[in-house]
Amino acid sequence: MEDGTPSIRDMLAVNLRAARTARGLSLSELSRRSGIGKATLSQLESGGGNPTIETVFSLSRVLEVAISDLLDHRAGGALTVVRGADVEVLRGEGVDLRPLRRIDAGDGVFEVYDQVVRGDAPQQSQGHVGIEHTVVQTGSLRVEVAGRTVDVGPGDYVAFDACEPHCYTALEAPVHSVLLLQYRADERLDGRPHPVLPTGR
């Protein structure tokens, strides 16, 4: 990565261990709750493996933390420029995500992603904390949320409670879109306070 920015693997290794410890969970218990093998979790905490969207979202759901609490490397400054070509892609069954920015605003937290729905497979999620906002730029996208289905195209916007099971399917691929995940600072599935995670990495 440019300018010494840690890789997704490096950031996940530090943040996953911190979040798991803050929740008082052993690797075995986290494995049981997430359905991710203990050996895989150990590898992720050591900075190895190849984390996917499905893995990261499952850990977010079980640990009840924002996605950026697992992936973010915070940088400050009056002018922030993130070059998409320089951002590591987090790949899923049917979606490529580039985490661009975490924004802490008052009592809210926002995450901005460049999202490409590829069209080779649907991208399904069992749900995770937050509200999901998507603005389609090119292509045509089918969004299914808790039994409801809507098709959206260029310039269209859709939002929903991300705790609900949901699925993205490209009808006209690839679908280029901006994904915004919105959280309240205190939002967790069980209302517990947000764990304090290290910011100096």
TrEMBL record:
PANTHER family: HTH-TYPE TRANSCRIPTIONAL REGULATOR (PTHR46797), METHYLPHOSPHONATE SYNTHASE (PTHR46797:SF1). It comes from the Bacteria. This is XRE family transcriptional regulator. Keywords: DNA-binding. Residues 16-70 form the HTH cro/C1-type domain. InterPro entries: Cro/C1-type_HTH, Cupin_2, Lambda_DNA-bd_dom_sf, RmlC-like_jellyroll, RmlC_Cupin_sf, TransReg_Diox_bact_type. CDD domains: cupin_XRE_C, HTH_XRE. SMART domains: HTH_XRE. The lineage of its organism: Bacteria, Bacillati, Actinomycetota, Actinomycetes, Pseudonocardiales.
